Amino acid sequence: NKRVKVKDLLASEPTGQEVIVMGWVRGFRNNQFIAINDGSTNNNIQVVVELGMLDEATQKRITQSASIKATGTLIASMGKGQKVEVKATSIEILGDCDAEKYPLQLRNRPSLEYLREIAHLRFRTNTFGAVFRVRHALAFAIHQFFNEKGFVYLHTPIVTASDAEGAGEMFRVTTLPFDNPPRNEDGSINFKEDFFGRSTNLTVSGQLEGELAATAFSEIYTFGPTFRAENSNTPRHLAEFWMIEPEMAFYDLEDNMNLAEEFIKYLIRYAMEHNREDLEFLAQRLAEEEKQLPQDKRSEMGLIEKLEFVLNNNFERITYTEAIDILLNSPAYKKKKFQYEVKWGIDMQSEHERYLVEKHFKKPVIVTGYPKDIKAFYMRQNDDGKTVAAMDILAPGIGEIVGGSQREERLEKLTERMKEMHIPVEEMWWYLDTRRYGSVPHAGFGLGFERMVLFVTGMTNIRDVIAFPRTPKNAEF
Ligand code: ATP
Ligand code: MG
Ligand code: MG
Ligand code: MG
Fold first, then answer.
1. Which residues, by range, are in coiled-coil regions (predicted)?
2. How far apart are the first and last CA of the chain?
3. 8-state DSSP, 379
4. Interatomic CA distance for residues 34 and 36, integer angstroms
């Protein structure tokens, strides 16, 4: 079929060529002008029907979101703001849409909250059109970045017996015996909490498996779904999210930070180059929304400006100890503006991270040298005996987007730490083998994909940048 996507049509020269457009109706004016959208861009193509071409019954069926096939010729448009339009020779309705019932028709400007309730339809709005095209582009750019650098893309398992973070936020896997499942007294099925006799969970991170491969391929990355039983309703946590986790042999903490900063900038640059229109749409939308806020709550920069600023400036690099000092000496602390306690040893909360980024440095910040007691067992211990070679990257509007570290490559130090943290050393023999057989300095990090999409799109709730958010309240579709 000769269907041409709306985005390509809008960029074509109008030479009177025959074209076919298929899409959904976004508007119908004067029984003559049909605006059609097919999701390739937020812009619509105008299809012009001559008066008398459509009978009354057909006209009535051209409602918001009815799907339609228009055949015609591509000609220059007299209308403002559009270069081309389709002069229709035939119109075929593929699927009707009952405007009386259509949920997106019923509200004028549906709120993001309302759209979350109809997540199956929200792709049809301009906001979600833009967000998910940007998300798509970023996913593609991730592979391109690592491919250009020669990293091997590794698929780490979803079901695993290890708890990489030791944070106990796992979903357990249950098996349902196929024949004659055991039943409880009330007749309900008695699920077994195991995976063919072994206790397993859904992965919280692919890192440990990633380390196994990095000690053979030198540089690898995983990019896959990750699960955490976070029973918290925050705008930056999901129970199911996607994470990008590169792991590199022969990297120290500094190399790790440099790679992470370069990676984030690469993704932003990619979106700015390939999704300019969508980002400008989102910037506009955000600006309108901010107009409702009091002056001091508005951002100093628009979305595009902010992204350009991030591209053109180095991330600030500070130690955890410096970060705590800044917080303790801040006006916000003195005025008791922080909800959570500030002192050396805390796991910084979003409010602290955002203060450092948005109020103090006004740029992304990389924090290194966290207390070992708030970090996972595998991080390389510093000589001070108190801190580890960890690094978190904090971004405006969000807080932590990356968590990473140089890994402990010294077998003795590692097993000693594992014992202190009550991690079963024998069960982890396969992991420790990397330290036994040709151990190397190595490092890696995890970038939360949805947090990166929030950063680039300027959206503020993580549920609005994943197609089907899994949160304590959302599991249906
Ligand atoms: P947070 O402090 O925000 O809970 P974390 O320190 O528990 O994050 P890590 O274990 O360091 O998270 O995971 C690496 C990255 O994965 C984080 O920097 C973040 O970008 C992302 N991430 C972690 N938990 C979630 C979640 N529940 N939903 C979405 N992204 C997440
Ligand atoms: Mg967490
Ligand atoms: Mg954290
Ligand atoms: Mg972290």
1. none
2. 33
3. B
4. 6
- Whole-angstrom Cα Rg for the chain: 27
Phi, psi values for residue 403, rounded to 5°: -125, 130
The percentage of residues in the chain with a pLDDT greater than 90, rounded to a whole number, is 83
Contact 17, 73 (CB under 8 A): yes
pTM of the model: 0.95
Query: 247: which 2 tokens?
Result: 């792991």
Helices (H), 300-370: 303-312, 320-328, 331-334, 350-354
Helix (H, G, I), strand (E, B) or coil at 84: strand
What is the 392 CA–ligand 4 centroid distance (Å)?
Answer: 6
CB of 82 closer than 8 Å to CB of 123: no
Query: Interior CA angle at 139 toward 218 and 152, to 5°?
Result: 15
- Rounded CA-CA distance 233/182 in Å is 35
Return the HEC string of 51-71.
CCCCCHHHHHHCCCCCEEEEE
| Six-digit token string for 380 | 């390389």
**ipTM of predicted complex:** 0.99
Q: Tell me if 463 CB under 6 Å of ligand 1.
A: no
Q: What is the DSSP secondary structure assignment for residue 355, as one 8-state letter? A: I
Residue identifier of the C-alpha nearest atom 16 of ligand 1: 448
Which ligand number lies closest to the CA of residue 393? 1
Give Cα separations from 182 to 171, 174, 178, 187, 198 (angstroms): 22, 13, 10, 9, 18
Distance of CA 243 to the CA centre of its chain: 8
What are the structure tokens assigned to 422, written together? 């009550």
